[in-house]
Amino acid sequence: MKKIIMGLATVALLCSVGNAKTLKVGLASGALSMDPYAHNETATNSILSNIFDALISFDKDINTHPGLAVSWTNPEPTVWIMNLRKGVKFHNGSDFNADDVVFSFNRVKTWNKSGFKGKVSAIDSVEKIDDYTVKFITKKPYPVFLRKLTYVNILDKETLEGKSDQWIGLNPIGTGPYKLTSWSKGDHIKMDANKDYWRGVAKFDKVLFRPLTNNATRVAAILSNEVDIINRVPVVDVNRVKNNDKLNFFVQPGLRLIYLQMDQDRDKSPYIKSHDGKNPLKDVRVRKAIYYGINEDAIVKYVMKGFAKPAAQLSPSAVFGYDPSIKRPSYNPKKAKALLAEAGYPNGFEIQLDSPNNRYINDAQIAQAVASSLAKIGIKVKVNATPKSTFFKETGKLNTSFFLIGWASSDGDASSILDGCVHTYDAETGYGRYNRGRYSNPKVDALIEESAGIMDPKKRLEVLRAAQKLAIVDDQNFIPLHYQVDIYASSKDIQFETRVDSRIWAYDIK
Amino acid sequence: MTKYILNRLFHSALVMFTISFIVFFIMFKAGDPVELMLPPDATQQDVVDMRAALGLDKSFIVQYQKFLVNVSKGNLGNSFIYGQPALDIVFERMPATMELAVIAMFISVLVGIPLGIISSIKPNSILSRIIMFFSLAGISVPVFWTGMILVLIFSVILGVLPSSGRGEVYLFTSAFTWDGIKHLIMPVATLAVFQLALILRLTRTGMMEVLMQDYIKLAAAKGVPRKVIVYYHALKNTLIPLITIIGIQFGQLVAFTIVTETIFAWPGTGKLIIDSIQNLDRPIVVAYLLVISFIFVAINFVVDVLYTFVDPRVRV
User: Fold this and answer.
1) Model pTM above 0.95
2) How far A209 CA lies from chain B's nearest CA (Å)?
3) Residue B191 sits in which domain range?
4) What is the DSSP string of A334-361?
5) CATH number where B235 lies
6) Which residues of A touch B54 (CB under 8 A)?
7) What was the ipTM of the complex prediction?
């Protein structure tokens, strides 16, 4: 009997493999637009990566590889000559050439609703040398140039010129492995394999992406075999998925750090009540006390159910700039109390911790756990969890003293968090836009600015690490909590590999 | 009648104007969508540019004024997030919600009223008790629970019905294809359970009250057949409150299918509106609420007209 069942199962498996020409993917969120410059947002980027190509592409570990550019030279620190791939065609049959590259970069840079301006802001000009050679000039030496290029999908000039934003938002024409066949918003996105794809035709003839925003719905869809892959398996359902012998289960450490920012600027901070009326967070000993006083292992274990990695620095190991020498000290409430006493707050103080409640995985619960941890060292924390729309607005106005926030180093380079959150706030240059605790150390600023111009990776790594060490180890400007992880489930009938950048690239799936 | 309709139209316009103002104001106060739209590496200048591109740099009065001018031209603005005309997006999603609401209501009325009548004629019979037991369950069980249990049984365990999505669509609806019907069954059932139970119970209460009236006793004494008494005299007098409730409930179904749509990943307006509120996508929220309030106003109008047919004493 067992043999018969096994036999039947094998037959069923073979049949399903034979028919499995459509790859069905259930996603936690769908695409917002088909215009690749409209929203720089993971879910949209993920779907559009199947339709478009950029000059440079990321592999699953976010290392850079040739994309539509076959090779490049960097004759001067600010000049990049890119040689383009020949014989590539867009989905509508028109040829890919230098004009398309120039057109695309100009649109990213100048379109008033472009969400990718930050990726090209350091590029001064793009020039066509001949049909398959393009020259980029950057404002300064720009070591992260290639990484930034992975975010600029190339559009077809001939087709798009003169078209309205609305039209472009519905009609994606790229050079990628799949072409869009239908998009029913909120229900599905259907794609057909691009038979002329320059890397070779994809394994699956068709791909179907379905936004299944409700966690239970997404899990039900994979359990009932209606989809082949789902992302963001909810933590509560992990065991159901793991114990299902038809499914594979994946845990992929992601790029997003969850951390706390503290007001280190104002002498009187709006949401702190201390016995001397001052802002205790300006004292590094208090900040260290908070770091020692948070039981992160317990947060990972009980709030995240094991699906997060405790963090000791700004970016995870996949990111350029990671420093293996920085280790997280173990939870030490005694030391925390001693540090508080040393700083003149033996009985702690009262503070409000602001947190979004619909932005990061379990954000409000993490804030609660931080509060109960800190209560043990005498710091009374009141959690104020609000929807992300309110949260970002209020923290943007600095209407906060202490808040929980996340950052994904999506370029795979530590410069993004250093520039955006660690450098002193400077509206003019754009540095420190998310430095809402207003941490400021001129030495760190100098290192960050220096690193932006070093083309030698080895030397640059040293400077990035030095900047991070000063900020996070010496000054304790932030309290790192953990890195989020991405959880996936896939049918055993397909071969699926997860990516660090959280994208689902159907071309790699067999 | 003409005067009445004109009067109604004027009132409706006033209601919709007020709603647009309130929603516009709340969304204006709620936060800054640009902050949510732009990636963290955007500079302050990018934020300023984006605000200007969306017209968010102007004062509230100027923004609202511009909105009113555009509305008078039939343009409710473009969605901040999707970049497409807000009204188009709402109408694109509307059929999916409407088909759920219409079919669910149709089934509820078709099944609920007869069952209500049966259980009112012989309130103590076993059949009545069984009906009442299930109606109590139907009215008490939360919608998300019904939905999840149906998915668990019919999709995960039995694997006979698809757990989510709308299936094949033909002529704006999935009710004309077999695949579409399979997708419709569970969400419709989830929505109909509560409505059916409510209508059933209202019919029963109404019928029992009417059946005690003197004129029913008189009719019986005159020798009018029982069937005529129940299905003509009594039912007709029960229908007025019932029609009101059905009207209100239908509006509720259209406006509040959010939970059902989320569970079944149904691409209707309920999901759209939740996403849009979270993203502070004001044009969509305003357009959606205007469309919904228009539907409510229209339903109320239809209900009022229906009264006149059921009860000759009512004059519009």
Assistant:
1) no
2) 11
3) 93-279
4) HHHHHHHHHTT-TT--EEEEEEESSSST
5) 1.10.3720.10
6) 113
7) 0.86
